[in-house]
Design brief:
homotetramer, about 120 residues, Helix Hairpins, about 65% helix, about 0% strand
Chain lengths: ~120, ~120, ~120, ~120
Amino acid sequence: MQDSFGTLQQALRAFAAERDWAQFHTPKNLAAALTVEAAELLEIFQWLPSGEKDTLSPAQYQAAGHEMADVLCYLLMAADRLEIDLFAVTQEKIGLNALKYPVARFAGKSDKYDQPAQPDS
Amino acid sequence: MQDSFGTLQQALRAFAAERDWAQFHTPKNLAAALTVEAAELLEIFQWLPSGEKDTLSPAQYQAAGHEMADVLCYLLMAADRLEIDLFAVTQEKIGLNALKYPVARFAGKSDKYDQPAQPDS
Amino acid sequence: MQDSFGTLQQALRAFAAERDWAQFHTPKNLAAALTVEAAELLEIFQWLPSGEKDTLSPAQYQAAGHEMADVLCYLLMAADRLEIDLFAVTQEKIGLNALKYPVARFAGKSDKYDQPAQPDS
Amino acid sequence: MQDSFGTLQQALRAFAAERDWAQFHTPKNLAAALTVEAAELLEIFQWLPSGEKDTLSPAQYQAAGHEMADVLCYLLMAADRLEIDLFAVTQEKIGLNALKYPVARFAGKSDKYDQPAQPDS
């Protein structure tokens, strides 16, 4: 069975090839486009208190899904171009984060791992 | 068989639950964190001509993989929180993009679909 | 009397010239660096409810000032490179925004000008 | 004589007051909006080689100016809200950057100050 990441990457490869767009798709340009799409997602929520699902209009909810899809497309294309196995590296990173953020110290806290702990508020 | 997206989302759900972090993980905050991680990926490439794999140092290449993993984690968490099926919405979006960017007009061009075509240069 | 924008742009021009950095400072690269610095500012606030001054630690407050300074530096450098008068174009844009967001319709609302009004909540 | 920063901040304060928008303008929200506008500037350049002035269409050039104005507006509003003197902190930051990036080591190089120097290419 074809995996989700592979299925989408194959579709994106065909999409770019048909349009002769590989020339534009350097890792640098894809990272810029990825950041632009992430910011378009953020724009939907920027003046809202939380952006929780039940506070979004149908148009906002649909737009959020589409911006998230755009983010994923550029991410998959960048991984493809750089020959990075996105699934493997993400599993590895979740393991590294578990070491950086031990439960005992970070439970209920949003501190960054390399900064002094904030006093309880 | 468990799919890649589901496997990672399950791991991320457990990670956040152990640390009691769901309180911080509103869609708005996740979209902000996603944008921050995308920008950290972009930072690696910002002064480089293209960021192609063979121009990166080993440290830059590893860092790029880790930043891409962070982007994916926040994206999957946001999709989970908003109950969006990221795989389905991405397939749908690739289909919509094919309509917005017909091959005949956009082959070899980086114009935006809603802007006048640039003259050939 | 030398104006604030001009004073800073002159210092930045000298700074880049001494290091022979103009070669890296294309408008594209400066826009990428500007976005990266803006995201570093956002990172300080990403898990906080509001980021108001009295909720920040002294280290966070100082870091916020420094990130804002970095944003301004790249913005002034981009304006310089593109020969854009940042003061004049900002005055013009504030005037345009006043037309896009008439007080009568937008008072107390965070709607975007090109989207349907949200019902009062 | 009124300084540029102060002139614009005063206009922005009046603009927000008339629309009762201070409620939305937390430092966090302003930092998000700032990042979104920076990304909109980046979007103009994302597929271009350099974004130099003579390669932009008149529409792109005008749009770049307007996005830069939006960035400056949110930056000035954030500084105002956090009671940060943007001119002073930027002068201070340029001084700090001169110490972080000594001419002798960084001339002609785009390395980051806290990373090992790249070999000459």
